[in-house]
Each structure stands twice: as structure tokens, then as C-alpha cells.
Give the backbone structure.
Amino acid sequence: MITTKKLNAKAFQELVLYYLRERITHKNLEVKHLVATNINEWFIFDATLFDRLFAQNKNLVKQFNDFEGGRLADTKTDFFYKQIAEPFIADIATEIEFTYFNIQDYQKPLRNADKGDDNSLIALFKLLSPEHLLKLPFTNDSNSLDKRFYSELLHIIGLTETKEGSKKLIERNKAGERHTGTILEDAIIQLDSLDKLSRLDKPNQFGSTNQERLFNVALELSITWINRILFLKLLEAQLITYHKGDKSFSFLNLDKIKNYDDLNSLFFQVLARKYDDRNHDVKKAFEKVPYLNSSLFEPTDIEQVTLFISNPKDDKTIPIISQTVLKKRPRQKNGTGNFNT
């Protein structure tokens, strides 16, 4: 069994093999989480992490395919664990994130009649809920993304949704349909022109070719930036609602955020700092924005060595899609037009 101090044990090596069989052999794109447990201790891993670290690594996938095809020295699973999985995991152990809990720690609130300590079970209940483990939407969540907003969000990032049989895939726009003003393409250009990939400790984990690495690094950055912005939009709505519609609590607008530099300041000079620790130039503009003690607004390791959101160009534009959710649109001819990202 794995432990919090040692992930590179047989139980985790088994998880890698089972995941690769589902993802590579059976083309299963529906795996949401992976769980290792001895009934008491639980380790929960997000499948997107496994996809990035394992299924997207060309060398590991080749070794896996050779093993499954009987083209290596042995066909026993122990051979895969010791000769393939163990050394590979050892190289990326620090990048593997997981959620851990021990059910024995909850024995008292689970078994006693005291309702007062039941609040300690809320986090456990949420963690083991279908909404979390299966990534299901909350049916009563008023903040759920509708299809039009989702489509436009992909358009702004530079991605498109396609179908492979009955499964939906999200991919980079095809060559000839890409716009340099999208977040993804702009990030790729900056990474390439500034030679940022050379600063990565292990560039090969992002792909076997330079183009694959540029795309995967840019995609990870884009997702990080968009996640922050979506979270802040929800926060802004909650602040305005809590203060009975007071629009002075609005901070994601053109009066305060005019360019990518302003977004960068919001992330790291405002939300990541207590009010008294903020720089003078942002105190007044964002005086009603609270301090968030959250790792979401700490620079990620990949940002530290590549790009921050202040790096993309502010003057690039992308076409407006016909089903835009923008309420005010410039006059267009033949369904075309541009807006600044």
C-alpha cells in the first residue's frame, strides 16, 4: 500500500497500469478519479493529472504498448511495475497531487449521538459525493455554464469541441482556423519567441516534440488563467448579491481591468495580499476586493519559469462568433467582427 510519504509503491504502480489500459487500450475517456484504499486510508487522484503525467508521455506509452504486446523481456505485471512504472514514477513523484484521508479519524463523529460535531463530516461527504468523484454538475447551481457561454469560452481560449464516436473531445483549433489573439495561440507565440521551454526542468514531460511541448505548456497556462477569472466572476457576483446589489463591489470591468497587466496585478498584488500589504497603486482601485488566502492566486511553478498573464499581447483581436453571449456587439457585416480578448 502507498503512504503519504511513499507513493511509489505497488498500489500506485498498479493504478498507473490499470489507467493506461483504460485510457490507451480501451480508449476510455470517461475516467474521472482514481482511488487507492485499504478501507481505512484513502488516496484520491484526479484523472486529468494521470492523463497529463502518464497517458500523454510518449515514451511511457510506447513502453506500455510494447509490454502489452509481449515485445519486452517479460510479460508479468511485476516486470511492468519494477522495470517501467517504478523508475518513471520516481522521476515525477513531486508532481503527483492527491487527496488523502483516514476514515478512522472520523470514527467519533460518525458513531456518537452528538450532532454538534457532525459539521466535521461535511468535507468528507462532499469529497465522496457523486458530484465530486464523477464530476457531475449540481442541478441547482445557478452558476452552471450554459452551452452558448461554454462555446464562446472555448472560442476565446482557442479550442474547439469535436466528437469521436459518442465521445466529446476538446482540441486545439485546426491549422488555418487559429487566431493569434486567442489566449492559447498568444501564449504559444510568447513561449516560442522568448524560448521559455528551455527553462523547464523536464520539458519532455510535456511532449516528445517542440510543437507538442509548446501546446501542452500553453494549454496548462491558459487553463490556470481562465480558472482564476471564472472563480473571480463568481466571487464578484456573490459580493454584489451579499451587499444587496451594490455595483461598487464590481471589479471585473473595463474601468478597473483594461489589459492583461491589470489582471496580473489583480491576481498577485490584490487577491494574494492582505489590504495593508497591498501596493498603493492598487489599494484604491480594488479597495473592496477581499484578500483570498488561496493557492489559486499564488504563481504556479510553470508560471515562474515561463509566462504570467501579463505576457500575452493586449492589442490582438479575434473574430466574434455568431452565437456570442456579448450583450453589446459592434455592427457587423456578413457575421464578422472583432473584439479584444
Q: What stands out?
A: The longest strand covers residues 41-46. Strands lie at 33-37, 41-46, 99-102, 159-164, 167-172, 317-319, 338-340. The radius of gyration is 23 Å. The CA atoms of residues 227 and 296 lie 9 Å apart.
